Amino acid sequence: MTVDELVARAVDADRRAIARLVSMVEDASPLLREVMAALIPHAGSALVIGLTGAPGVGKSTSTSALVTAFRAQGLRVGVLAVDPTSPFTGGALLGDRVRMQDHATDDDVFIRSMATRGHLGGLAWATPQAVRILDAAGCDVVLVETVGVGQSEVDVAGLADTTVVLLAPGMGDGIQAAKAGILEVGDIFVVNKADRDGADAVVRDLRATVRMTERAPGDWRQPILTTVASRGEGIDELVAAIEAHRAWAVDSGTAQQRRVRRVRDEIQAIAIADLRRAIADLHGDERLDELARSVLAGEQDPYVAADTITAAMR
Amino acid sequence: MTVDELVARAVDADRRAIARLVSMVEDASPLLREVMAALIPHAGSALVIGLTGAPGVGKSTSTSALVTAFRAQGLRVGVLAVDPTSPFTGGALLGDRVRMQDHATDDDVFIRSMATRGHLGGLAWATPQAVRILDAAGCDVVLVETVGVGQSEVDVAGLADTTVVLLAPGMGDGIQAAKAGILEVGDIFVVNKADRDGADAVVRDLRATVRMTERAPGDWRQPILTTVASRGEGIDELVAAIEAHRAWAVDSGTAQQRRVRRVRDEIQAIAIADLRRAIADLHGDERLDELARSVLAGEQDPYVAADTITAAMR
How many A/B residue pairs have CB atoms within 8 Å? Predict the structure, then answer.
């Protein structure tokens, strides 16, 4: 099958074609260039919602509940679970599948996990490309779920139109660690497992921190919601908050700014990946090891070694 | 003060000079090139130990217990807590400081947190450079602690001579999520908080997984230890395991291979950062936004846009 045929099928929402295209992204296929060229005219209309938070806060359960809510509105939904760490996608993803199985027989829900470990800086270009596939395949909403404490959750914020940050009571140090990174990226905060002890404290804590954030008139005021996603409680309010953020983002011009930034980051990531490949082609592992050994031997510093590489590129 | 003077003081273990040099790494100072050139002759002898694991497993407590153990051997110890997420280093680092305050008055312990969010791909070159500073300042052991689920914990493995992966019972989904990423990076596994319910199950689980890993004769057999770091239990055994791994790594040649790889990664990261800067200088935000907007409008695909960038570089 040619790339054009494959893309045509994906645009017709053929599940196998969509899956094959996402696999091509995962594998960093050399055909991606052709794939993206063919997809571009069909993409651009999906609302991209990022869900992030520390492990154990209930991301998959929340995602599943959101899928149910959007399906009730008759929307077609794509779910992309990005696992930036690992090629072995054992426990975590099995868990996802169990939670997602409510939607397994729904033709208007497309769920896909994607591992991007292996290509350096892969998350930066692979995630927007996978989103573009689901978008072009007619998904009205694409939910991007990232296992995230660290770089990855910040990245998903750049990617999404609206970023939902999940927290939960009883996460110990995790919450503290997470809070530092998430405050700047969340458009909406959700304290999930709100029926558990300690939920009030998390809400109070968040509220105090959000209140301290400087905000100009007309800026988005991040709401703090509570949910029990496993029972669907609070999900309608979450959907309403997502819609309110969307409306604000369109009115304020933020929506378009974010999309421009997103594509700009993707373009830069592709360019960097190309340059990285060019470095490897030009120098080879042997030559790079030789440079590294001379730095280890104290014969030159790493900046001088890096100059050798960049000079050869130009 | 000139760079040479500053480096000379750091090599003499002057705490303020060391702190200033680490800040220069954090700020991506243009003087780093000079700093690294001056440091190179003094560095290379420290044993670098990575500690990683999900939030809440007790990384800081374990680090602190290891500091005590190495100090008892008369070694000079550096601790680098790398927070890849965030410029606001609120809760997490305050916690660290509290746990670390046992060592606050010890002149032979140097503890430093480093935030690297802000420079793209910063962790890749900033962490080895901060390690080099502590190494050149006469630390016999440098403990690098990363808050990590995700890319960052894999990175620290590339950086360290020996990587210790911490787990703890009662972390829910976190453990599962973590396990996937950590099995390939850990040289030593530690189940901390071993006095809590569920510790046995975590050990059993890990043991079963480690047993399934393919291993050639002569390969390192990852030990699984238990600790209660808050009471110092199991720390002597952990130190012994670190020493055993070190001996194996030197004998097998792995130690040298890892160091070569580490410097190679650093050189590449510097080269990539230089190229990234060159892209920004050549094109400017306005031009990059323009390219992004034309992709959004469906006029070109991101690969063609990236070609424009890389072509201009050469």
Answer: 258
Is A267 within 8 Å of B41 when comparing Cβ atoms?
no
Contact state of A298 with B40 under an 8 Å Cβ cutoff: yes
Instruction: Tokens for A227, please give them.
Output: 């949910």
Q: pLDDT under 50 in chain B at which residues?
A: 85-98, 118-120, 149-154, 173-174, 176-177
A-chain CB neighbours of B275 within 8 Å are 272, 275, 310, 313
Q: Are residues B223 and B282 in the same domain?
A: no
Rounded-to-integer distance, Cα A244 and Cα A227, Å = 18
Backbone phi, then psi, for B233, in 5-degree steps? -75, 130
Do A248 and A272 lie in one domain? The reply is no
Positive or negative torsion for Cα B257, B259, B262, B268:
negative
A179 and A284 housed in the same domain = no
Cβ contact, residue pair A260, B177, below 8 Å: no
- How close B293 gets to chain A, by Cα (Å)? 6
Check whether residue B275 and residue B246 sit in a common domain: no
Structure confidence at residue A1 (pLDDT): 86
Is the ipTM here above 0.90?
no
Q: What is the pTM of this model?
A: 0.75
The pLDDT confidence band at residue A149, using thresholds 50, 70 and 90, is very low
Nearest to B60 by CA among B101, B89, B15: B101
Q: How far is A170 from chain B (nearest CA, A)?
A: 10
Residue A257 lies in a domain: no
Query: Nearest C-alpha of chain B: how many angstroms from A7?
Result: 14
Is the domain of A91 the same as that of A239?
Answer: yes
Mutation for testing the A interface, residue in B29, B114, B151 having most A CBs under 10 Å: B151
Which residues of chain B does A183 touch, with a Cβ-Cβ cutoff of 8 Å? 88
The DSSP bridge partners found for residue A50 are A144, A163
Inter-chain residue contact B172 with A296, CB threshold 8 Å? no
Its domain, for residue B308, covers: 268-313
Per-residue pLDDT, B91: 33
In a domain, B3, yes or no: no
Structure confidence at residue B281 (pLDDT): 81
- How far apart are the CA of B184 and the nearest CA of chain A, in angstroms? 9
> What mean pLDDT value characterizes chain A?
83
Say yes or no to pLDDT of A228 above 50.
Answer: yes
* Shared-domain flag, residues A234 and A301: no
- CB neighbour burial string for A199-227, b if at least 16 within 10 angstroms, e if fewer: beebbebbeebbeeeeeeeeeeebbbbbb
Decide if B298 contacts A44 (C-beta within 8 A). Answer: yes
Residue B297 lies in a domain: yes
The whole-number pLDDT of residue A177 equals 43
In this structure, is residue B29 part of a structural domain? no
Alpha carbon distance B92, A254 (integer Å): 31
Q: What local confidence, expressed as pLDDT, does residue A313 receive? A: 74
Give the model confidence (pLDDT) of B57-67 as tens digits: 888 899 999 99
Task: Note whether A274 contacts B183, CB cutoff 8 Å.
Answer: no
Q: What is the mean pLDDT of residues A165-184?
A: 64
Q: Which of B231, B155, B282, B304 is CA-nearest to residue A263?
A: B304
**In a shared domain, residues B180 and B303:** no
Q: Do A247 and A135 belong together in one domain?
A: yes
Cβ–Cβ of B270/A149 closer than 8 Å?
no
Instruction: Read off the CATH number of the domain in which A130 is found.
Output: 3.40.50.300
Which domain-ending residue is among B226, B252, B278? B252
Q: How many domains, chain A?
A: 2
- What pLDDT score was predicted for residue B86? 41
